[in-house]
């Protein structure tokens, strides 16, 4: 019955969050502490320098460590350094990989992690899951939740529009994932955590309410996307797995990664998966209703828009159930190639092609 749930104890999402850091409890907690800043290259390195200069008057020692990628080699190298030099905190600074690497190293070395996401491109900005590269393949592993998350909306505003859209694609998967979870529950395969499900549902609905606002602007959109992705991450922590935010649509995306060359961003592939899952879940009308939102939010409405062929999509849908042991709508069908083809034709008609536009040209 007892379940230990970890959630970030500090969550800061505001303009100028980095320069205002000295006014926060996070800064107070750094007194005489040793801090490792793990960042990517170029822009995130500059941000790491800015954070180092901001916290240096308070901390005892601050060191910047770069990670070029999220491979096991890099993680092992950083882990050794952390074990040898025993920092009190790890700050993960960057888009996706630096955050994932920081979460993995922090978990393995039992050092609390504070994340500074520079892009809201997936729910990795605050989740108990990290993606690492092993033998040239991306694998998701469970990690401890970050102690705190600091999102500077000014920094997020400079994130490329395509990454913002990808984050939104990842968020939209909550609905189809929750349907699949309910299905697994009804089939007697899995328990459903109602509280986690409610959080994941509210996360995506609150974001859609923002999208429907007449006074929607980019700043509001970014803030709402970041907040909802964080709520999704916390829902996963409550559930103890990625279940509330990852169902058949994610299995299709994983199959595209493993079997079809991983040609697009995670959230873009998930967005394509959402359309297929909605259709299979009997919500054909909602597939059409999603199209205007996809256009507005810079998401692909056709798989060819992100570089996949019909043959690759057929393979991905066929192999999706084998990607992990997770009961979804895909298990309720035993689709033949012919049936998959007719689903693809219905979900992705010719007129759905080439509508893919950057979010900057569609949202104010
Ligand atoms: Zn995802």
UniProtKB/TrEMBL annotation:
<keyword id="KW-0963">Cytoplasm</keyword>
<feature type="binding site">
    <location>
        <begin position="96"/>
        <end position="100"/>
    </location>
    <ligand>
        <name>NAD(+)</name>
    </ligand>
</feature>
<feature type="binding site">
    <location>
        <position position="123"/>
    </location>
    <ligand>
        <name>glycerol</name>
    </ligand>
</feature>
<keyword id="KW-0862">Zinc</keyword>
<dbReference type="GO" id="GO:0046872">
    <property type="term" value="F:metal ion binding"/>
</dbReference>
<feature type="binding site">
    <location>
        <position position="250"/>
    </location>
    <ligand>
        <name>glycerol</name>
    </ligand>
</feature>
<keyword id="KW-0521">NADP</keyword>
<keyword id="KW-0443">Lipid metabolism</keyword>
<keyword id="KW-0479">Metal-binding</keyword>
<dbReference type="GO" id="GO:0016614">
    <property type="term" value="F:oxidoreductase activity, acting on CH-OH group of donors"/>
</dbReference>
<keyword id="KW-0560">Oxidoreductase</keyword>
<keyword id="KW-1208">Phospholipid metabolism</keyword>
<feature type="binding site">
    <location>
        <begin position="118"/>
        <end position="121"/>
    </location>
    <ligand>
        <name>NAD(+)</name>
    </ligand>
</feature>
<keyword id="KW-0594">Phospholipid biosynthesis</keyword>
<feature type="binding site">
    <location>
        <position position="127"/>
    </location>
    <ligand>
        <name>NAD(+)</name>
    </ligand>
</feature>
<keyword id="KW-0520">NAD</keyword>
<dbReference type="Pfam" id="PF13685">
    <property type="entry name" value="Fe-ADH_2"/>
</dbReference>
<feature type="binding site">
    <location>
        <position position="170"/>
    </location>
    <ligand>
        <name>glycerol</name>
    </ligand>
</feature>
<protein>
    <submittedName>
        <fullName>Glycerol-1-phosphate dehydrogenase [NAD(P)+]</fullName>
    </submittedName>
</protein>
<dbReference type="InterPro" id="IPR016205">
    <property type="entry name" value="Glycerol_DH"/>
</dbReference>
<dbReference type="InterPro" id="IPR032837">
    <property type="entry name" value="G1PDH"/>
</dbReference>
<feature type="binding site">
    <location>
        <position position="266"/>
    </location>
    <ligand>
        <name>glycerol</name>
    </ligand>
</feature>
<keyword id="KW-0444">Lipid biosynthesis</keyword>
<dbReference type="GO" id="GO:0008654">
    <property type="term" value="P:phospholipid biosynthetic process"/>
</dbReference>
């Amino acid at each position: 019955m007892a379940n230990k749930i970890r959630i970030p104890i500090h969550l800061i999402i505001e303009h100028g969050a980095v320069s205002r850091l000295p006014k926060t409890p996070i800064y107070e907690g750094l007194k005489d502490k040793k801090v490792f800043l793990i960042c990517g290259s170029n822009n995130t390195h500059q941000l790491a320098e800015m954070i180092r200069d901001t916290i240096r008057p308070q901390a005892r020692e601050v060191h910047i460590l770069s990670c070029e990628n999220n491979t096991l080699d890099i993680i092992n190298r950083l882990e050794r350094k952390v074990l040898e030099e025993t920092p009190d905190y790890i700050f993960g600074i960057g888009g996706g990989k630096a955050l994932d690497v920081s979460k993995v190293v922090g978990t393995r070395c039992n050092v609390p992690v504070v994340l500074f996401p520079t892009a809201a491109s997936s729910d990795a900005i605050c989740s108990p899951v990290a993606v690492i590269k092993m033998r040239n393949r991306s694998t998701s592993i469970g990690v401890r939740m970050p102690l705190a998350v600091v999102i500077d909306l000014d920094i997020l505003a400079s994130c490329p529009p395509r990454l913002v859209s990808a984050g939104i694609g990842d968020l939209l998967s909550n609905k189809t994932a929750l349907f699949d979870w309910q299905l697994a529950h009804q089939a007697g395969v899995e328990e459903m955590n109602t509280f986690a499900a409610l959080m994941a549902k509210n996360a995506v609905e609150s974001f859609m309410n923002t999208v429907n606002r007449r006074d929607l602007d980019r700043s509001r959109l970014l803030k709402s996307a970041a907040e909802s992705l964080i709520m999704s991450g916390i829902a996963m922590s409550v559930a103890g797995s990625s279940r509330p935010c990852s169902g058949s649509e994610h299995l299709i995306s994983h199959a595209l990664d493993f079997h079809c060359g991983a040609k697009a961003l995670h959230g873009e592939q998930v967005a394509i998966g959402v359309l297929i899952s909605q259709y299979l879940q009997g919500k054909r009308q909602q597939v059409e209703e999603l199209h205007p939102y996809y256009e507005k939010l810079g998401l692909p409405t056709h798989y060819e828009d992100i570089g996949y062929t019909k043959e690759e999509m057929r393979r991905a849908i066929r192999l999706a159930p084998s990607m992990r042991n997770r009961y979804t709508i895909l298990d309720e069908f035993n689709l033949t190639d012919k049936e998959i083809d007719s689903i693809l034709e219905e979900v992705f008609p010719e007129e759905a092609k080439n509508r893919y536009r950057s979010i900057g040209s569609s949202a104010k």
